[in-house]
Specification:
Elements (H helix, E strand, L loop, with lengths): L1 H10 L3 H18 L1 H16 L2 H50 L2 H6 L2 H43 L1 H7 L3 H11 L1 H26 L1 H6 L3 H53 L5 H42 L21 E9 L5 E10 L4 E5 L6 H8 L7 E6 L2 E2 L5 H5 L2 E4 L10 H5 L8 H10 L3 H5 L18 H15 L3 E5 L8 H15 L3 E5 L11 E6 L2 E6 L1 H7 L2 H17 L1
Parallel strand pairs: 3-8, 3-9, 6-7, 7-8
Antiparallel strand pairs: 1-2, 1-4, 4-5, 9-10
């Protein structure tokens, strides 16, 4: 019952339209009762008495009934279609917004294919039930009630015999349908796994082709399809057994009614017209009962889908908006870490006791081996994660007290593999400031050294760059990302491994020059393996195993001859070896 209330809650915003649609169903059901009764009148009165006037009245009445059925049928279908589409839009919007609210940590833990499967497949399952199965259920319920009343009026004895099989069917149905929900849940989970793998393969198609793994991936896809097929067929077998069982019982009941009804006509206890009308109404009774098996199938699938959707909608984000958020109108860019530690949900500690002060308009470089905690520290600054302990202050205010949107409006980032969208170069540069005028977009592109390659592309700033910017080189994508950050004009700029993928010294020099334009006059936090970009940083922080091992200027750390100096010498040796 609680689950039905949840489904009904999805229709609550469209209550008036839904009531009108159910009213149309009610009227259509009542009109359906006319045709078998017309057969009774023709057989018992028109044919027996050769009453042409009555025949004309019956036919004229049927034409009027059919016209009204058309009107109410159209009204019913139109209203439910309208409600269904609006409900789907509203539910997908809620789900999509919730997925945006959930922290980066949730999206890191959840495969993209599973998310898309829920956003599309699960919502469709609910729609199919509410506006397919539920309509059938309502129509069938009214049909059964009205038809039973008419059947009892025609012959209560035949009615009792006709419905004697229904309790046995109901018990069978109640026994086997609970398992359908679990089976449908398994099918949906398998489908989500398949979608996730397909998404991975399409995104990594170059790797798949480069390593000649097409047959392996096709075989893996086929095996997962086989698992879905096996799970789906197990579900369908139960549903079809219920369907065919109900059909068998209805056929057996019909045979018994034909024998008994025929005997009553022969004995004069029942008229031929009444028997024919009874048979017609009986057909109208058993079909809805049979449909209940399919409706139950819809319900179990939709119920499993609603469980998953509720699981997302009821989840609280790891990074929450504070109860009384502090809005930042202007940000100086002063950052302070006070004993900050962070661990992932599995208990693995990544940062421990970080104490760090970054004055406004200072460039700070984070250095260290992979896994030292550099990207995690930056993620805390971006508020992708929440500090486990300690305090992170921005302009003297605890970052947890800041309004998320206003805080992030003062940030910009360029990541190691920064993402570009499938629109134009202009749209990607203006992503952080979609209302920016064209002259400012061009100025940002010029500062990021984009102008030359944009001028050489057909379409220029309006050229489509494909999903993820696939039509651009890595260095060109990085420069577009830098232009996006420059146009944002942030108080705090994050550069995470920004030049590690640039594949030539000339390209690297061009990108590094663009970075220097971007960093001028603002607080900048850099993560870079190539130490040439960070040698001029005001402060260099060397992280090891989640702790600050060394901190100082480039010259000071070289003089100290510690971890940073060792890494610097190694890179200088690699560069000299590469030149040789």
């Amino acid at each position: 019952m609680n689950r039905l209330k949840e489904f009904a809650g999805l229709l609550a915003p469209y209550k008036r339209a839904a009531l009108a649609a159910f009213g149309a169903i009610l009227c259509a059901n009542l009109l359906d009762l006319a045709f078998p009764w017309a057969i009774k009148l023709v057989l018992d009165d028109v044919l027996r008495n050769h009453d042409i006037a009555l025949l004309n009245m019956v036919c004229a009445g049927l034409i009027a009934v059919f016209c009204l059925k058309f009107v109410f049928g159209f009204l019913r279908e139109y209203l439910f279609a309208s409600i269904g589409e609006r409900m789907v839009v509203a539910l997908r919007n809620r789900l999509y917004w919730q997925l945006q609210r959930l922290s980066v940590g949730y999206r890191d833990r959840t495969p993209a294919g599973e998310t898309v499967s829920g956003l599309i497949g699960d919502v469709d399952s609910i729609k199919n039930f509410l506006f397919g199965g539920m309509i059938d259920f309502t129509f069938s319920l009214f049909n059964i009630l009205f038809v039973l009343i008419v059947l009892c009026i025609l012959s209560w004895k035949l009615t009792l015999i006709s419905i004697v099989f229904i309790p046995f069917y109901a018990l069978t149905y109640l026994k086997y349908t609970p398992g359908l929900k679990a089976r449908h849940g398994l099918v949906r989970r398998k489908y989500a796994e398949l979608t996730a793998r397909a998404s991975e393969v399409f995104n990594g198609m170059r790797v798949v082709a480069g390593y000649g793994r097409e047959e392996h991936e096709a075989g893996l896809f086929a095996r997962k399809q086989g698992e879905i097929l096996a799970a789906a067929m197990r579900s369908h077998r139960v549903a079809m057994l219920l369907w065919m069982g109900s059909e068998f019982m209805s056929s057996a009941g019909l045979a018994l009614v034909i024998w008994l009804g025929g005997s009553m006509v022969l004995s004069g206890k029942l008229s031929a017209g009444t028997l024919m009308a009874f048979y017609a109404y009986l057909g109208m009774l058993f079909y809805p009962v049979i449909r209940m098996a399919v409706i139950g199938n819809y319900y179990q699938e939709a119920s499993a889908a609603l469980d998953r959707i509720n699981g997302i909608l009821q989840r609280e984000p790891d990074v929450k908006e504070p109860a009384h958020p502090v809005k930042i109108e202007r940000m100086r860019g002063e950052i302070s870490f006070r004993g900050v530690s962070f661990a992932y949900p599995d208990g693995r500690e990544v940062l421990s006791g970080i104490d760090l002060d970054i004055p406004p308009a200072t460039t700070v470089a984070l250095v260290g081996k992979s896994g030292a905690g550099k990207s995690t520290l930056v993620s805390l600054l971006l508020r992708f994660y929440q500090p486990g302990s300690g305090t992170l202050l921005v302009d003297g205010t605890d970052i947890r007290e800041l309004e998320l949107r206003s805080y992030r409006s003062h940030l910009a980032m360029v990541l190691q593999d920064d993402y570009l969208f499938s629109g134009s170069i202009r749209e990607n540069i203006a992503y952080g400031r979609p209302d920016a005028p064209m002259d400012q977009i061009v100025a940002a592109a010029r500062a990021a050294n984009c102008e030359e390659f944009i001028a050489g592309i057909t379409g220029g700033y309006d050229a489509a760059i494909g999903e993820g910017g696939i039509k651009l080189s890595f260095g060109q994508r990085q420069r577009v990302s830098i232009a996006r950050a420059i146009l944002r004009d942030p108080a705090l700029l994050i550069l995470d491994e920004a030049t590690s993928g640039v594949d030539s010294e000339t390209e690297c020099r061009i990108v590094e020059e663009a970075y220097r334009h971007a960093m001028a006059g603002r607080t900048t936090v850099i993560i870079a393996h190539r130490l040439s970009l960070i040698s001029a940083a005001g402060l260099i922080v060397f992280l090891r195993d989640g702790r600050i091992a060394e901190m100082g200027t480039h010259a000071g750390l070289l003089a100290r001859d510690g971890l940073y100096a060792k890494m610097w010498r190694e890179q200088q040796g690699e560069r000299q070896g590469a030149r040789v």
